[in-house]
Design brief:
The protein is of the alpha+beta class. The chain has one domain: Roll (Thiol Ester Dehydrase, Chain A), CATH 3.10.129.10. The protein is built from three helices and five strands, in the order βααββββα. A five-stranded antiparallel β-sheet has the order 1-3-4-5-2.
Length: 129
């Protein structure tokens, strides 16, 4: 199932040429993943407090296809690819209307607060799959 979230491009998101600064695409997809998890009913603060588990980006493979500009309304799409006990892979895209501007494959690691590999509870894996 694909999760969708809209985001508007603000002046602070752009560079001198008026296009979205490349690193801000990563911020937009981070927000998309956060909202995807939230809409599944997973409270990340509670997960950390009760189990000590957190999500950390391990790898991002990104393609910048077409620039977004100031005041564009973009849609961030997040689609789970693989959900395991210690690793989650998602495909993400940023669109303006139907035009794909950016794509990424993101690998997330499940970590304990000490930074060691953790194991995602089965009920959360089921929600994400």
């Amino acid at each position: 199932m694909t999760h969708r979230m809209d985001v508007r491009v603000y002046y602070e998101d752009t560079d001198l040429a008026g296009i979205v600064y490349y690193a801000n695409y990563l911020r937009f997809i981070e927000r998309g993943r956060t909202e995807w998890v939230r809409e599944l009913g997973v409270d990340q603060s509670k997960l950390k407090r009760e189990t000590g588990l957190v999500f950390a980006v391990r790898r991002v493979e990104a393609d910048y296809l077409t620039p977004a500009r100031f005041d564009d309304v973009l849609t961030v799409e997040t689609r789970p690819i693989r959900v395991g006990g210690a690793k989650i892979e998602v495909d993400q895209a940023i669109l303006r209307g139907k035009k794909v501007l950016f794509t990424a494959r993101v690998t997330l690691a499940v970590l304990t607060e000490s930074g060691r590999a953790g194991r995602l509870p089965a009920e959360i894996r089921q929600l994400m799959a």
